[in-house]
Structure formats: C-alpha cells, structure tokens
Specification:
This protein is α+β, with helices and mostly antiparallel strands and 365 residues long. It has five helices and 23 strands. The longest helix is centred in the middle third of the chain and has 20 residues. It is elongated.
Length: 365
C-alpha cells in the first residue's frame, strides 16, 4: 500500500512509501533516496587516539585511568573504536564486523563493515578508522616508579629477630591483600618497596589504610600486636600537613614449637601465640595459658625447640607421676616427670634435654 500526492521537498519526486512506515521528525517528508543521502548508517570519527600506560596497560578514559584487562593493543583499539562509533537511531537489525590492520607499533587501522535496515531499506557501509596508540605512564605507575608511599609496615619481633619464614609469610600477606584490592578495581593500591632490614622486613605501601590493614592481618595470623606512629613529611599548597604512617607488626617473643620455662611449675611447649600465649606443661600435660600484657609475653627462659627432641627408650613406668627413660646422650636410665599425654605402651618417646633437665614431649605436635 502506498501514499500518493506527496512530493519530496528536496528533489520534487513523488513519494511512494509503505503505509506501515510511520515516520516522524523534521526529515520525515524526504523520500528514501534523499534521506539515505543525508544520513549514514554509522557515524565514525576520522581518527581515534588511545592513551595507554606502557607499564601496566591501563587506558585513559575521561579524566581517569582504567584497567581494561586487554591482552594487546588490538583489543584496546577494538574497544575504543566501538565506543566511538554511533549507529543511526532508527536503524534496525544492525550487525558489524571488524578487521584490524597493524600499520606499525602504534597505529592500527580498523576496517569496519556494517549492515542494517533503515526505512525498510537494507544498507551496507564500510568505514576505516585509524587508531593511534599514545604510550604514556599512568599516575599509579609513576608513583610506583618514583617510590611514592604513604605508610610503612614494619615486621618486627619482641626480644628476638623475626625468622625468615615469618618475614616471608608477612610479605605474602601484604602482597595478597594488595592483589585483592587491585582485583576489586582499587588503582590506589600498590606496594612501592619491600626491603629486608636487620630487625625484620619493611613494606612500603600506597595508603595508610592499606598499611593498617596489612599489619592487622599479619598479627592475626602470626600473633603479636600493632603499634603505630606518624611522621610529618611536608605541607600541601593549602598548608595542610602531610604525614607518613608507620605500622609496626610486633610478633610475639616466643613461637609455636619453642620450649620455655615461664615459672617454677615446669617447662612449657608453646603451641600458639595468637591472642594469648598457649601451650602444654611438659611435667604434667596440663594446658598452659598466659595473657600478653601490652603485647609483651611473660618473662621466661628459652630451653629449646620441638625439633631438638630425640627419640629414646621408655624403660619403665614407675607410678602415675614418674617414668624411667634412657638419656639420649649418656644412655643412663633417668627418672623424670610423667605427663598425662605419655603413652605407657610406647617403646620409645621423644625427649628434650636442656638445662632444666629431661622432659617427654607430646607425639602429636
């Protein structure tokens, strides 16, 4: 069905148009040929410039850097051209495909082919958009390269130096936390430096909040407390003071597996330092627990380590409180305390010899 008696105001030709096409707008009176001459299916820019961080691959969009997760510059070029293209608002059944052409290291031609339906007329168009890759350094990578940091996490221990295992674990905790923040889109999260010092390890991070969170996680897993201090470093243009924070994750003086003598009631094998100091009495097998006062463990003599124990022969059970074992060094029979965890049917037991004497250690540690 068609409408007659209407004329195109541009070319003067009689318009015959399907009645189903209910056209509106200032150009509705144009015939299809004039309308299609006036409007393209796709509006494409003459050129697209993409600012890409040469270090991390982030793309500058608007007024900020965005992590796009692209594997190479071609992926970035396709995304940016897709954002820059606009399709006619009345177009239907639009589809397109793109063929990138790498001209040189920083230039990619995007050959785009489009098909669609406009005013009931099938249309095919092809546009070529050059994409220029401008390599820069984003603010975050610039800060990292410049050694910028707002806080330092200092991993230390009371009355001793942290072990290599402890410092390695602390660094793993810090890196895992920052990686998690990055995965969630926080571009202000980074570690600018990790340095080993004689007393432990220092981790310099981008914000004070991240520093505090890392320190809290370290002591949550390794035990201890967090001390904090701040140092004035400068003032901004408005006269506001700028500080750097130091968070000291102070690990406990004793570690799981260490044998100590905290009092006159017999040595203790330390089992945990998270929260309170927890262990087991080697003379009786009873549980031992002592609170850390202001982060400080109770004074105690250090007697040795669980791994220092040696297997020796269980000679005899004397009574409920004493057994005979062979001294692992002299092979003399010695009567020592019988803790309740000792298996009376065992042929051998682990014993630790120290200046406090000979003591049976539990097998399940």
């Amino acid at each position: 069905m068609s409408r007659s008696g209407e004329f195109c105001p541009r070319c003067g030709e009689t318009i015959e148009r399907a009645a189903a096409l209910d056209l509106e707008g200032p150009d509705a009176a144009l015939c299809d040929d004039c309308y299609l001459d006036e409007y393209d299916l796709v509006d494409a820019p003459d050129r697209v410039e993409v600012r890409v961080c040469a270090r991390c691959g982030a793309v500058h969009r608007g007024n900020r850097w965005v992590d796009v997760g692209a594997e190479d510059y071609t992926d970035i070029a396709i995304e940016e051209v897709t954002e820059a293209l606009s399709v006619h608002v009345d177009a239907e059944s639009v589809s397109w495909q793109v063929a990138p052409e790498q001209v040189d290291e920083t230039t990619i031609r995007m050959h785009c082919q489009f098909t669609g339906v406009l005013r009931g007329t099938p249309i095919a168009e092809e546009v070529t958009v050059p994409v220029k890759i401008a390599k820069e350094t984003c603010k975050r990578c610039g800060q990292i390269a410049g050694g910028s940091y707002a806080a330092t996490v200092q991993v230390r221990a009371r009355s001793r130096d942290p072990t290599e295992t402890e410092t390695s674990k602390a660094v793993d905790i810090a890196e895992a936390y920052v990686d998690d923040r990055e995965d969630k889109g926080d571009r202000n999260a980074f570690i600018s430096e990790i340095s080993e010092v004689s007393e432990g390890v220092d981790v310099k991070v981008s914000t004070s909040q991240i520093g505090r969170a890392i320190a809290d996680r370290i002591v949550r897993e390794l035990g201890g407390t967090v001390d904090e201090a701040r140092r004035l470093v400068s003032e901004d243009d408005d006269g506001q003071r700028l500080y750097r924070m130091a968070y000291s994750a102070r690990l406990p003086a004793y570690r799981p597996g260490e044998v100590i003598a905290p009092d006159d009631d017999g040595p203790v094998l330390v089992r945990s330092v998270q929260g309170n100091l927890k262990g087991v009495r080697l003379t009786t097998g009873e549980d031992y627990e002592a609170a850390f006062e202001d982060g400080t463990a109770p004074d105690a003599d250090r007697l040795g380590w669980r791994e220092d124990a040696k297997q020796t022969t269980l000679v005899a059970i004397e009574d409920d409180r004493a057994v005979q074992v062979l001294d692992p060094e002299t092979y003399e029979s010695k009567t020592i305390a019988r803790p309740d965890y000792l298996d009376p049917d065992a042929n051998e037991v682990p014993v630790l010899k120290s200046r406090a004497g000979l003591h049976v250690l539990p097998d399940d540690e």
